[in-house]
C-alpha cells in the first residue's frame, strides 16, 4: 500500500505542479480587446490594426495578446467606439470623430473645407494640435494616434456633379457635421449615415451620392452603384486610435514602453503612404466599370472657396457661442498654419 501511494504521488504531484505552473503562465498573459468599425478586408484592418496588434504581441514576447473585433461584430459598431474604449468595454478602439455628431467640437475644426489635401498632412496637423488644443475633449483615453484621409471626392449616381449648381437638391451622405454644413452651403441636402449603410441607400435611391475618399469605393463595393466621381479635394475627416487610460496605466512599464514606441509620431507618419495605397483599388474599380471621373477645375475650385468662406466663419462662431470653444479661431488659425507647413 505504501509503495502504491509513493507511485501515485510520483505521478500525480508533478502533474498537479505542472498544471499550476501552466495556469500561472496563462494568468500572466495580458489580453487586450481592440475594436473598430471597418470590414476585416479593409486596408485599415489589414495593413494597420492587424499588423500593429501582432507586432505588439511579438515585441512583448507573448506577454500581450490582442483580439481584434472588426466592423460587423458585436463590438464593431461605429457609434459606440469611443464610449467602449473610455468605459473599458474594449481596451483599444479606432473610430471616426464625426459619428456620433457633436461629440468633438474642437476636433471638428480640422474637418473644415480646404484645410487638408493629403492624409499625410491631415494626420500630422491633427497630431500637432492634439496636446495643446484637442486633448481636453478626449477624456479617459491614452491617445495613440490621430489621422485623416486624403481630401475626399463627391461620388454620385445618375447625375454628374462638376459645379456648385449641379449639387443643388442632391441627397449626399456626409461623414461629419462640418461636412454637412459644407454641403448645405453648396446647395445639397446632407444625410448622416454610417459607411455600411451607403451602398443600399444609393441602390434604393434614398441617396443620390456620398462623400468619401477613394478607398471606401472599393472596400464597401460602392463602384457597383455609382456612376460619377468628382475629385473635389475640399474636405477631410478625422479618426482616432485610442486606448483606455486606466488599462494603459495598469500595464507593466516595459509593455507601456513598447506601446509608446509603436504609437505617436512613428504611427502617424505611416498614414499618408497607407492611404495613398488604400485609395488605388477604389479608383481602379471605378475606372474598370467605366464610371466617369473628373477633377474640379481651378476656376470652379475658387468659386467653392469663396462660397464656403462664410461657412467656415459661421462654424467657428457657432463653436464659440454654443459649444464653449472660446479659442475656436485660434485653433483654426493654427491648423491653417500647420497645414501650410506639412502639405509642402
Please characterize this protein's 3D structure.
With about 350 residues, the protein is α/β, with parallel strands linked by helices. The chain has a domain of about 150 residues: Bacterial extracellular solute-binding protein, family 7 (D-Maltodextrin-Binding Protein, domain 2, 3-Layer(aba) Sandwich). About 50% of the residues lie in helices and about 15% in strands. The chain is built from 15 helices and eleven strands. The chain has a six-stranded mixed sheet with strand order 7-6-8-5-9-11. It has a five-stranded mixed sheet with strand order 2-1-3-10-4, with helices on both faces. α5 packs antiparallel against α15.
SSE succession: HEHEHEHHEEHEHEHEHEEHHHHEHH
Distance between the termini: 86 Å
CATH class category label of the domain at 153-236 and 278-342? Alpha Beta
Largest beta-sheet characterization = 6 strands, mixed
The count of β-strands is: 11
The CATH architecture of the domain at 153-236 and 278-342 can be given as: 3-Layer(aba) Sandwich
Name given to the CATH homologous superfamily of the domain at 153-236 and 278-342: Bacterial extracellular solute-binding protein, family 7
Shape: globular
Task: Give the strand content.
Answer: 15-25%
Mean pLDDT: 92
Structural class: alpha/beta
Low-confidence blocks of residues: 6-26
